[in-house]
Amino acid sequence: MKIFVAGGAGYIGSHTVKELIHEGFEVLIFDNFSTGKKELIIGGKLIEGDLRDKDCLKKVFSSEDIDAVLHFASLIQVGESYTNPKKYYSHNLLSSLNLLDVLLEADIKYFIFSSSAAVYGMPQETPIPESHLLNPINPYGQTKLFVERILQDYEKAYGLKFVSLRYFNAAGADPEGQLGELHQPETHLIPNICLFLLGKKKNFNLFGTDFPTPDGTAVRDYIHVTDLAKAHVLALRHLLSTSKSDFINLGVTRGYSVLEVIKETEEITGKKVMYRKKPRRKGDVPMLLASKDKAERVLSWKPLHSDIENIIKTAWDWHKKAVK
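The structure corresponding to this sequence follows.
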């Protein structure tokens, strides 16, 4: 089967491409390299293009015999979405609509969407189940929720079948060392600590020390990117075999605070993390933990790589090799 992977040169997309190839799928990577990296492509066929260019998409879908689509391509910086919401609504929604329209024209019925825990907003219960109120508090989360609602409407009207995977905190790097996290700018905690320890960042800022958590710093549910990638393959197989649309969390129901992550990183690297305390960032919530029950039940998914020590070690090993 041939799988079209939008954003396949990005962090999560590239790891998923690796898993798809390992599982015997033929992969077509589509990326405009605004954030994706060519060095993260280790297999599959590459087509450079932009999802906002509908004519380009039509040419690809008319010339390739595609069976299903995985959509990772998205702007993801929450802070930037507050200051430039127009950019996020125009990019994330237009790209998704173009892809869906061309997909339907090509009579492709299977779609895996890269969603986010941001669709939930402020947690009303912990861990968060998929039935939780959907109330995003930032434009980035709104774009993810809008696409989810579009998918529901497209299923009713056109028979599109989808699985929307709501990520919590993707982290770590490929255990074999081929792939890792290369965002520019980098906004995620663990790679920022690694970059600071490698002398690539002048300062490391700790945002918020007054949260209602045991040590005052925010608690997050970290999931290893390889476990995340494997979940996409399981979701694809599930969709192909059942044609049942669904919304599924991807997390491990175990949280670590920023200070706990710092301490673990210090133990693994043998280096001291000197940080500067800063106020909370807009929209930061004290704790985000996923209920993983549905992923385990529906996808038979078992996160095998997501202990925090392994997440940090693989990230550190990757950054030591990749950062020059």
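The mean pLDDT is 97.
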